[in-house]
Amino acid sequence: MKVVLAFLLSLVAVFVWVTAASAQDYPNRPVTMIVAFPPGGADDATARILQEPFQRALGQPVVIENVGGAGGMIAADRAARAAPDGYTVLIHQVALAAGMTLYPKLAFDAEKDFVPIGLVNTAAGTLAGRADLPPNNFDELLRWIKRRA
């Protein structure tokens, strides 16, 4: 939760700076937050947690647009094609980096076409197996897999 709060504060600071540095009428319409996965997942929940603070900070509605498919690459493509006017933001995850290697013919380059705003949250990964699996921890699992290879 501290990471989300720190992100929100830094994002508000960025928006205040952008607003002061640009035309005084920004934002004057809704902002679209593209979520790279369907509704109901962790990314969607994160976007919905951020939606209200964004709306208060911007004084405009923030519309969440869930765009699932291709491991988030369809959403990233949509965001890359959006006008660079500050009215579209993309919420993605490490899958964006993985997608760049899985789909080498994408119409966008994540390193060149996106500017990271900040870390929204972190999540721990879990590795689970059957109860009768011999390894009891990750090191044992690696040794067990190597012996079987």
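(ticket continues) Second input and output from the same batch:
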Amino acid sequence: MLDDRIAHPTDSADLLNVLFHADNGTWPRRRIRDEALTFMLAGHETTANTMSWFWYLMALNRDARDRMLPEVDDVLTGGTPTAADLTRLPWTTACVQESQRYYSAVWLIARVAIEDDLIDGHHVRPGTTVLIPIHHIHHDERWWPDPETFDPTRFIGDAAKDRPRSAYLPFGGGRRICIGQSFALMETVLVVAIMSQRWTFDLCPNHPVELEATLTLRPKHGLRVIAARREAL
């Protein structure tokens, strides 16, 4: 891809051109390749798992789904959603955010200490790898009352104002927070809205759904659903 773009340059505002022109075009070829690869892998694997867990949780929580579908219908009236519609889809967005709390595609992140530190009485030496268990934080009763209940109202209105910022980390946090956070949330909500206009998804009976925690948190045996077509608006 890089060779083709170098041989056939364009003036389009796409990812490769942004990377080629970063810092006045001073990035070495390897960094451009690595950054492009990271965008593609992170944007595919995590999004696919996020969507899988979302439809799984919607199938298990019909009340939340039954509230989401009318919102999508009323806001979009059969049209294709755009970024401008996001603010008019608060319940749909909250369902996505709660699904990311319940089953975060990135369930664990690591950070390497660069200097001595003391965390809750534990001495952390420079060079130590510190693991941040996102999945467990998202199910900690100190920050999430009744954490095993799927409850999108946690993300409606001022519900989050008294919650510590690092209690919710589907995209990590701090200076290394996922650069695609805003795009990923926008993308997921729009895909959910588009699919919900025409389909509902229920779980196939007897298909096992087990957590598999590798680089991401994914359904070990995949997720099988029964798609039912909704009446066109």
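Agent notes: The first strand starts at residue 109 and ends at 112. The radius of gyration is 20 Å. Closing as not reproducible unless the customer responds.
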